[in-house]
Design a protein that fits this description.
The complex is a heterodimer of chains A (231) and B (694). Chain A has seven helices and nine strands. Chain A has one domain: P-loop containing nucleotide triphosphate hydrolases (Rossmann fold). Chain A has 231 residues and is of the alpha/beta class. Chain A has a nine-stranded mixed β-sheet with strand order 3-2-4-5-1-6-7-8-9. Chain B has 694 residues and is an alpha+beta fold. An eight-stranded antiparallel β-sheet of chain B has the order 18-17-23-14-15-22-19-20. In chain B, strands 2-3-1-4-5-11-6 form a seven-stranded mixed β-sheet, with helices on both faces. In chain B, strands 30, 34, 36, 37, 38 and 39 form a six-stranded mixed β-sheet that branches. Chain B is globular, with a radius of gyration of 29 Å. Classes of the chains: A alpha/beta (231), B alpha+beta (694). At the A-B interface, α4, α5, β3 and α6 of A face α14 and β37 of B.
Chain lengths: 231, 694
Amino acid sequence: MDREDLITSNPLRVLGLDNKAEEGRQSLGLVMARAGLGKTAILVQIALDSMLRGNRVLHVSIGESIEKTRDRYDEILSLMVEGLSEEARTEVARRRMIMTFKENVFSRPMLEERLKDLIQQEIFQPDCLIIDGYDFDGNGRQAMEDLKVLMADLGIAVIWFSAVCHREDERVSADGVPAPCHAIDDLFEVVLVIKPHGDHIHLDILKCAYCQVEPGTTLTLDPSTMLIKKA
Amino acid sequence: MARDLSKVRNIGISAHIDSGKTTLTERILFYTNRIHAIHEVRGKDGVGAKMDSMELEKERGITIQSAATYASWKDIEINIIDTPGHVDFTIEVERALRVLDGAILVLCSVGGVQSQSITVNRQMSRYRVPRIAFVNKCDRTGANPERVAGQLRDKLDLNARLMQLPIGLEAEFSGIVDLITMKALYFEGKSGEQIRESVIPVEMQAEAQERHQELLEELSMYSEELMEALLEGGEIDTQLVYDAVRKGTLSLEFTPVFIGSAYKNKGIQPLLDAVDAYLPCPTDVQNFALDLRKNEEEFAVTNSPDDPLIMLAFKLEDGRYGQLTYVRTYQGNLNKGDTVYNSRTGKKVKIGRLVRMHADEMEEIDGCGPGDIVALFGVDCASGDTFTVEGIDASMSSMHIPEPVISLAIIPVDNKAQTNMSKALNRFTKEDPTFRTFVDHETGETIISGMGELHLDVYIERMKREYKAEVTAGAPQVAYRETITARADFDYTHKKQTGGSGQYGRVAGYLEPLEEGDYEFVDSIVGGTIPREYIPSCDKGFQKSMEKGILCGAAITGVRAVINDGASHSVDSSDVAFQLAAIGAFKEAYRKAHPVIMEPIMKVAVEGPTEFQGAVMGSLNQRRGMIIGTVEEGNYTVVEAEVPLSEMFGYSTILRSLTQGKAEFTMEFATFKQVPKSVGEELIKKYEQEKKNN
């Protein structure tokens, strides 16, 4: 698939988030799964889709190194777009910045300070923020609401989070959003959950405020590449 | 009797500049009885440390060339390569890592893991070199080996564990607690040569016991026997523990960390014991050679003395004894008087003298075997050549050699200096593949290029000192390149037939971008439109054209020249005529092939206290830098960026003033990228102005 095809036919189009971002609305997205099922791979695809559409993405990685995160992007971009020239690759990479934090170091005030540094010095103005490894168990509703205020202040259109859910914790919200995000699911416009089904891996759309499809629609993941496909 | 390779260790000592690795090597040589007195790197006795054999190294207190030396500890033979700590000399580090089986990663207990340690660690991982760490300078104010071990885990992603605890720190550092034998060790006598074993100080016993237990649990991951023994309870056999450490180290899954102070003669002997116990012998490491008769198919070398010789020349030095070639033997034996083949040149070479090097002194030997690192005399070869014997056509796998990124013009001050400069350049280019030289035909200037300002500075200094070649050096210039981005046809006739002997040659074909490599010539002539004898002339003409591009005068790379038609004249065609025709053809097509200027992009890592992160990012951004990412580690941060080399001149001064001298940076070559339009236009304008002025 070439770049233009990918932009128009990316299965992520069904989420309709990009259109809403263009209209100036701000959204929060969430990818949930049990540990090791590929949340980062999904976030990276969402980020790359945004970058290919010309947006700037700041990837905040908590507990992961720059090199590993960068490798993820390179690997998934090669799988998503065939024969992308070196020049185009550089152009895409210019729209991305990676910020890594050690688990015990990350805090919302620190993130805010870093973001302001970037934006005020005109180093990097992100349109989309990816926060991979955010601790939902340790941070409650207030922290999430603060982040919403921050994104409004800084003109960030979308923030995507990843969250780990646990098999033994059976709490769910009315929309079926599992713990630990069940009590704050109203703050998210989109919630996706990765679920293994036999040989297949499904990406269930649990919640989708601006979706062009009904909630409950399923996307699937290619188990060898973790690329999103239409079911 | 066959030599027992399990008793051989080929190790490197690698680390950040100023972490004290030369002092450490000096102490190792002292304790292994290779030297009988200790001299300091910047010592007052004016002798300098043994491994810093070059005068310049002694003066600057840094290690530039890696000298190889041999030592024996108990029943183990150790070949040590001392490697440079500055990033500009990493080809030396890389070459050393290629021939070594294991390494000691030296860290300063105050400075800890710094940017250069990250680079060195990355190189060690690339060559899969098992390593042990040594946290040096525990006697210094601010020493904290615990913090350094934590940094090894967090910053270098190594599973690093302290094998010892310090008894006191800073000025109070008096000994170490061995967490395996659970004994305290004190280093006494004039130079710490007497080790006194004692019980662990009472106030440390509880902590030592806890750490001992933690260590055993961690190590049980590498040894089922140890795990069983732990589950069963009772006394643990220390050999089981040593075996587990060795297994973890060899598989690169575990990095044992030792502590001490080389300067204060503490902790060196246990480190030597660790080299013996945990670092690999030549047969523990699998090395591969390329079979040149089977399209460079990879095959494992055997380490057997009975197999045909395979030996790699990894370093050349021109010293007071003539040319020295450092070699590592991978299989087979080599004896004085043997004849070997250089697999690159196919030439036979007779080995006259064979020596073991001990910094700048040597010991004559009669022969060497698998795993040995020795030096040969009077062998004409280049660094990286492989030597074999008749019947085997192999080469050790090629090494990754970065392209030079910086150049400057040098002008000898007089005729004598001119002669000496040529000799020096000839030597340096053979010794160091990242150091290159050429003469600019237009200006007649000699240009040297290399990996950084310090790299070139050192060679200019060496010219003066070792060859008495006094030169004046111009300002450093970025090594730009030109390349083409589209295919373009040519059909050019060189014709000069106006009386006397004429010149005639017609060349047709096309130029196209070459993805991999600098230049390729393709002869697609059918029907002999260009006679066979003039095909090499065309190739030569194209290659000459590549020396200097028309945009900014930089060398042209990444071009495939294809000839598919032409014409000749029975009398007027000649080698020169076809060379000139090819030059004309190249010029004709080059402009049409959308030429662009490429510039070297450096990977820059700036490390400093968190409060300066914003300022650092701003400074990199102003320099056309692309910020790749930032790493937040609490009190300090690392900013990684890709920045054009042309923007990095003088950055150290800027960084110092921005961060009150608290941040430092390293840079290494990343890639060549096309310059932005505005920069390209500026370079073209400047080049045209220069041409006008000349």
